[in-house]
């Protein structure tokens, strides 16, 4: 049985392991709900900001085209859940008949590959977290929107990207991709793209051993003051 603390942790800052996961993960899953309670989930590019010139609180930003299902859902119901994790994606070898192990057995890998696989597994297989929050659309054309778009673009531009790889399609219609920039010209810089800001309310963090930690963002009047006064 997973171990879970009886009382949620309450603080004005995110737990450090959650911060590290948000800073290291490439994508997250965004769950929204339609007015008739139909669930919808999207794999999204995102940017985590511990604070900004416009808010002292931690927040997550994403972009979405105005005609998408998630946009319609967010307009009707701003409450969202996010799933972020740093598990490795490769399956370990199994004993199932007729199914090849993934990754391949150690006998078919070089010693260096085996070492690197072990290092990656140790470094990445740590936690998954479900984050609950309230989403809002940043006013179009505002200084805040311009600033957030710049942060989002910088956070999702990678030196090792290959032209045509399609990294920027997440969160947008693939037919709207730009060429030569992974689609970023559309999913960040497009004039009609809306910036979504999620203010974090609480989170549930599960580690690979089955331990579960609940965390809640402290209300403004609950936050500790300087020097305790």
Automatic annotation (TrEMBL):
InterPro entries: PMP_oxidase-like (IPR052841), Pyridox_Oxase_N (IPR011576), Split_barrel_FMN-bd (IPR012349)
Gene Ontology cellular-component annotations: cytoplasm; nucleus
Gene3D superfamilies according to UniProt: Electron Transport, Fmn-binding Protein, Chain A
One Pfam short name: PNPOx_N
Pyridoxamine 5'-phosphate oxidase N-terminal domain location: 16-154
Domain of life (superkingdom): Eukaryota
Protein's UniProt name: Pyridoxamine phosphate oxidase-like protein
């Amino acid at each position: 049985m997973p171990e879970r603390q009886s009382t949620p942790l309450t603080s004005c800052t995110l737990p450090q392991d959650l911060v590290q996961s948000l800073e290291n993960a490439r994508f997250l899953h965004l769950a929204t709900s339609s007015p008739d309670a139909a669930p919808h989930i999207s794999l999204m590019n995102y940017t985590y900001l511990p604070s900004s010139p416009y808010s002292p609180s931690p927040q997550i930003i994403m972009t979405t085209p105005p005609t998408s299902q998630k946009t319609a859902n967010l307009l009707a119901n701003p409450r969202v859940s996010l799933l972020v994790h740093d598990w490795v994606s490769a399956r370990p070898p199994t004993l199932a008949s007729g199914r090849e192990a993934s990754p391949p057995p150690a006998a078919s890998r070089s010693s260096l590959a085996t070492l690197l696989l072990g290092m990656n597994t140790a470094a990445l297989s740590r936690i998954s977290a479900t984050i609950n929050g309230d989403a809002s659309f940043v006013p179009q054309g505002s200084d805040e929107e311009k600033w957030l778009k710049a942060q989002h673009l910088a956070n999702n531009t990678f030196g090792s990207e290959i032209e045509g790889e399609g990294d920027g399609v997440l969160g947008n219609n693939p037919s709207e991709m730009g060429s030569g920039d992974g689609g970023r010209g559309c999913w960040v810089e497009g004039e009609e793209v809306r910036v979504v800001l999620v203010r974090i309310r609480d989170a549930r963090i599960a580690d690979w051993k089955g331990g579960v930690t609940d965390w809640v963002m402290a209300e403004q009047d609950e936050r500790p003051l300087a020097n305790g006064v």
